[in-house]
Each structure stands twice: as structure tokens, then as C-alpha cells.
Design goal:
This protein is mainly alpha-helical and 230 residues long. It has helices at residues 2-5, 8-29, 36-51, 55-61, 63-74, 76-82, 84-88, 91-115, 120-126, 133-140, 147-171, 177-199, 201-229. It folds into 2 domains: 1-61, no CATH class; 72-229, no CATH class.
């Protein structure tokens, strides 16, 4: 029985099945706390602990999903292509916003964690918290970060942004669709973008653009900032 539970096909099918079920629940209930990514995350943790299966084995069995996730990041280039016309008249504001969001995201989490006594390895692991997982782990790993911590932090940031991001923006008086979408994509990467798409077409388009630009900016700036921030 244990061998069956640890098989590649079973673990891969289980993960996809739980996500699809979570998606059905989310579409029916429309409650952000029932986000399919969050439900899948919690369900897989419970299953692995109950079945006594190592995470390393699970990661090996579902490596095809990691590959697909990486391919989805490459596809972000198409989002940039789609927004070329929109960018022609607002290239400077978009670039400044991306740079400001990147610096704020990195500097804030590094200094807050430093104030609580976090060591350099942890700081490196959590610094790329606002970009999608494939980019975040590709940046933090070579710099000495712990990839598993990076993945969890990025996931938690995305879920938080998806659940509370729109509410925070509304409370702050941010009503412009493009500004709301860009903020969600900058702060909460792919999961925030999924939420932005639910809000509207403009929000979704700008969120996807912001997610792509934030990934590029973080990959370029973090290795440089890492030498001076901590």
C-alpha cells in the first residue's frame, strides 16, 4: 500500500485532482480563504504527514509540475508583448513603479527580518518574496538561500495578497483598475494576478505585466543589493 501511495502517477494525479476539486469549491463558494492553491497546499501537507512520505519523494514525483511552472514563467513574455501599445505612452511611470515596488519589497522584508535577528541565509531566502516561485528560487539559491524556505514564503505572500490585497487597496482609496492590477501583480505575483483577473480585464492585464516586470527587476537587482543590504 505504501508503495502505491509513493508512486509517481498516484502523487501527480492526487495533486492535480485536489487542485481541480479546490477550484470547483472556490468557484462555487467565491470565498478567498478557499483559494484552490491554499486548499491544495494544506491537503498535500496533511496527506504527506499521514502517509509518512518524505517531501523529497513527493517533489521528485511531481517534478513535471515544476517544469510546467517554469514554462509558464517563460510565457510571461507574451504578456509583455500584449501590453506594448499600452506601454508606449506610459513607459516611464511603469518603469519607476516597477523599480519602486522591487526595492520596497526587498528592502522592507530584509530590514524587518533583520530587526528580529534573522541570519543572512534566511534574509537571502525571503528577499525575493514578491516574485513567482521559479524566479525566486533561481535567484535565492545561487546567493546561498534555502530554496524550500523561499518557496513557502513566496506562496504565503501570494495567498495573503490574493485574500487581502484588494481589500487593502480599497481601504487606501485606490480605485483605478490599472493601478489595482499593477499593485496586485507586483506584490503577490501569480496568485495575485489570478485574483486581479477576477476583478476585471484591465486589472488582469496590468497584473500580468507587473508580475513579469517584477520578476525581471528582482533577478537583476537582488544579486547587487545583497552585497549592501546585509
Amino acid at each position: 500500500m505504501k508503495t502505491l501511495l509513493e508512486s509517481d502517477l498516484f502523487l501527480l494525479t492526487l495533486t492535480v485532482g485536489i487542485y481541480c476539486l479546490g477550484g470547483m469549491i472556490y468557484r462555487r463558494m467565491r470565498t478567498t480563504l478557499l483559494h484552490p492553491v491554499l486548499l491544495t497546499f494544506l491537503a498535500i501537507i496533511v496527506f504527506l504527514k499521514t502517509a509518512d512520505i518524505d517531501y523529497a519523494r513527493y517533489r521528485e514525483a511531481t517534478s513535471v509540475l515544476d517544469f510546467a511552472l517554469g514554462m509558464s514563467v517563460v510565457a510571461l513574455g507574451y504578456l509583455l508583448y500584449e501590453q506594448v501599445e499600452r506601454l508606449r505612452g506610459s513607459l516611464l511611470p511603469v518603469c519607476i513603479s516597477t523599480l519602486a515596488g522591487c526595492l520596497a519589497g526587498i528592502v522592507s522584508v530584509v530590514y524587518i527580518a533583520s530587526a528580529f535577528g534573522a541570519e543572512r541565509t534566511i534574509l537571502t531566502s525571503i528577499a525575493p518574496k514578491s516574485v513567482t516561485v521559479p524566479i525566486a528560487v533561481s535567484v535565492s539559491g545561487p546567493l546561498g538561500g534555502i530554496v524550500s524556505i523561499t518557496s513557502v514564503v513566496v506562496f504565503c505572500v501570494g495567498i495573503f495578497g490574493s485574500i487581502f490585497g484588494e481589500w487593502i487597496l480599497r481601504r487606501c482609496g485606490v480605485t483605478d483598475p490599472e493601478a489595482r492590477g499593477f499593485a496586485l501583480g507586483s506584490a503577490a505575483h501569480g496568485i495575485g494576478t489570478a485574483r486581479a483577473i477576477e476583478l476585471g480585464a484591465a486589472e488582469g492585464a496590468l497584473s500580468g505585466l507587473a508580475m513579469a516586470l517584477m520578476g525581471l527587476a528582482t533577478a537583476l537587482l537582488l544579486p547587487f543589493l545583497e552585497k549592501y543590504l546585509y
